[in-house]
Amino acid sequence: MKVEVQSKKLIKPSVPTPDHRRKMNISGIDELQIPAHVGILFYYRVDGENHEDDTVRRLRLLEESLSETLAIFYPLAGRYIHEGLFIDCNDEGAEFVHAKVNVQLVQLLQGDCDADLLGRLSKFQLGLSGNPLVVIQANVFECGGLVISLRFCHKLGDMGTMATFMNSWATACRSGIQEVASPNFELSSLFPAKGSTVTRGLQPRAGVKFTMRRFFFSGEALSRLKLAATKDGRISRVEVVSALLCKAFVTMDRVKHGSLRPLVVFQNMSLRGRVNLLIPTNAFGNFYTKVVARHTMHENGLNLEAFVKVICDTFASAKTRYAVIADRELCMDMVRDSAREYEGRFNGDEETVVNFTSWCGFPLYDVDFGWGKPDFVSCTLVPVPLIVLVDSKSEGGIDAWIILSQEEKVLLEQDPDVAVFTS
């Protein structure tokens, strides 16, 4: 499968950014983020006989509407200035790449998602200095199908911000820019960066080559799993999938190390609507925390119910603690402490670390540019162990995208619980 780049260009905002908006400070939570680009891909089957003419028209509409959308989301067209902890909103532009793929899209959708191929569908420049903060790649398949990838710098925002951007761009393309609401850029004034927190980042394991495997939990399988995990089935989809995968990773870790080691679970939790602070619902930027759970493992506590209790108690405790926060400094201190613990434990080697992020609940399958909603949504490979949970297209399902070593991949595929509840 060949992916050939046809063109690259910088798309600038349709209207110049006013001088008084040329500098946007990042927030204290933005400051904690690693300087990496997160990738997400949207897959569209496109029907019709004149797909070549349609492709030309669609690419033109994508570029024009992107330019209009960047006038509203103007920091995305700027460049990050690390020394000053701000975005220079200089309108240099977001990168737009047009590529051709020499197969039918259905071959990709029906086959295994190869991590290297997904990377070629979503290329970007390493490093932030002088590079675009957003890279979009429109991949056109022989049938006219499209895979639109978005790579965005995590210093700019969380998945809530990026989902809002993608839906805004799609709305501008489908219905016109007049239908798009402007985001709020107040997070940096509510939680100012201190310039004192330097995140070293997550250290990749030396000599380990990571791969990625998708495990699909159907809605029906999740219903069965909930009943197996609790007496009344009252547990969220994300919690029960997280519990099952933690159980599998502890089993796998015992095989590798010959003994049970303490379990440490990390899960991203959005703070939007979860704190007693007046935060605009359309706030642009990062507003989430790392929820951390540490649990000493025992031989008699390896059943699914035990892992469910760990996960549910951890989420319930975190939600309770943040729900009463009415002070911005206290909120920032708690987020910072969690980030430091995350970095310290993640880079250690004495515990079984399971690292989750959930994109469930974000309107990713609503991104409709005018030719229908996506048939599939996926993430891309990052060089650290990670589990990304994404809503599936089918009702109530979850796709678990798991980044791990080849050895771990083989062990995980052999886990009896994972085999029973996934495909």
What do these coordinates show?
It contains twelve helices and 15 strands. The strands form three sheets. A six-stranded mixed β-sheet has the order 1-6-7-8-3-13. A six-stranded mixed β-sheet has the order 9-15-14-12-10-11. It has a three-stranded antiparallel β-sheet with strand order 2-5-4, with no helix packed on it. The chain is α+β, with helices and mostly antiparallel strands and 423 residues long. The longest helix has 22 residues, at 51-72. It is globular. The mean pLDDT is 92. The chain has helices at 28-31, 51-72, 105-110, 115-120, 159-175, 187-190, 219-229, 237-257, 304-323, 328-346, 406-413, 416-421, and strands spanning 3-11, 23-25, 37-44, 79-81, 86-88, 94-101, 134-141, 146-153, 210-217, 263-270, 288-295, 352-358, 376-379, 386-391, 398-405. Helices cover 34% and strands 23% of the residues.
Q: What's this model, at a glance?
A:
The chain is of the alpha+beta class and 423 residues long.
**Which stretches are low in confidence, meaning pLDDT under 50 for 5 or more residues running?**
none
Strand order of the largest sheet: 1-6-7-8-3-13
Shape: globular
The tally of beta strands, per DSSP, is 15
Q: Strand count, sense and closure of the main sheet?
A: 6 strands, mixed
Helix content: 25-40%
Number of helices: 12
Subunit organisation of the chains:
single chain
Radius of gyration (CA) equals 22 Å
How confident is the prediction overall: mean pLDDT?
92
**Element order: H for helix, E for strand:** EEHEHEEEHHEEHHEHHEEHHEEEEHH
> Helices and strands: which structural class?
alpha+beta
Which range does the strand content fall in? 15-25%
N/C terminus separation: 24 Å
